[in-house]
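Researcher: I need the complex structure. Ligand is calcium ion. Inputs:
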Amino acid sequence: MAHHNSRAWFLTGWLPHFGRDLAKLALVGLLIQGSPFAAQAQAPRSPTPAPVKGPVRVETFAKGLEHPWGLAFLPDGGMLVTERPGRLRRVERDGRLSGPLAGVPKVFARGQGGLLDVTLSPEFKQDRFVYISYAEPGEGGAGTAVARGRLGEGGLEETRVIWRQEPKVSGSNHWGSRIVFRPDGTLFVTLGERFDYAERAQDLSVTLGKIIRINPDGSAPRDNPFAGRYGARPEIWSYGHRNVQAATLHPETGELWTVEHGARGGDELNRVAPGKNYGWPVISYGVHYSGRKIGEGTAKPGMEQPVYYWDPVIAPSGMVFYTGKAFPDWKGSVLIGSLNPGLLVRLVVKDGKVAKEERYLGDLRERIRDVRQAAEGSLYLLTDAGNGRILRITPANRR
Ligand SMILES: [Ca+2]
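Model: Output:
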């Protein structure tokens, strides 16, 4: 605003008298255009519906997992699951757990850090590659990293770090990090701003507070939005993010959708487009947990609005667009894990907007860390606890 005012003052100052009215009109135009509230509509806020019993049946599929974080289905009907302290396990079709698999790098297992997401290469049947994200210790503190190895008999073989967040910083919070493959073979990795470094989310020379898109070897695709821009990291896809622990592709448009942990009252559903600025910490619907105001308000030109936001927050982690047949009414819905208050959140999406929200599993009182859809349409959820479980969710009317 100060910028626009001084510019207008400059204009009115030197223009001959007859031009001043014209300049005043221009000033009004600038103010309207520059006003954060005139330029953009406010995003819709979650009505915070009460949890319902819902059409779901909940079974414990596996238990005895220490803070499980990410789950990936293997083509043989088994799964891989991460535990945040640094273990990767195989889960058999009957829910039995293997011992810890070999080949997992040393992780920084403090605070929210540790071994985080796991996903398979789209060509897994041929290349056997497994991708993991984790908090990596190193000079300066720690940072999110992505490694891949080939799944063999005893675990990951030839594990290699393919990408590292830079710089490594102190602290143990806000690592992101979901790994999502695109049909073009590149992968998105969602990141956090490492909590004490919020302003770096706006700095394109570092990868704190960003979503990146990389090739399977960790290099940056040449058609990324900042590739070739001086001073910007070529792997950046979008920026201005706080801490993104839920991400998936829209099944029809292929667009990346994410849910981001906000500050108090500011969790956000975003449609993530290349090169865009998602605003943190300049704009936000939340306030700091201390009650202190954040940044400049809720909207600003050049910064994207969320599709939807939650106040009070749901503490989102893990999401899918439901495409299965088991829950016909849920087709096309977004399903999101909530750590706090601990829910499965369903959003009915119409034309890219949220038409309705429903909440399930409120009576479980479990922190939901990840949500995955199995091929036959049932859902598998991870509970974030010292004695965490894999839950299997099927329709209540089918026994
Ligand atoms: Ca935002």
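Model: Summary of the prediction. The two ends are 62 Å apart (CA to CA).
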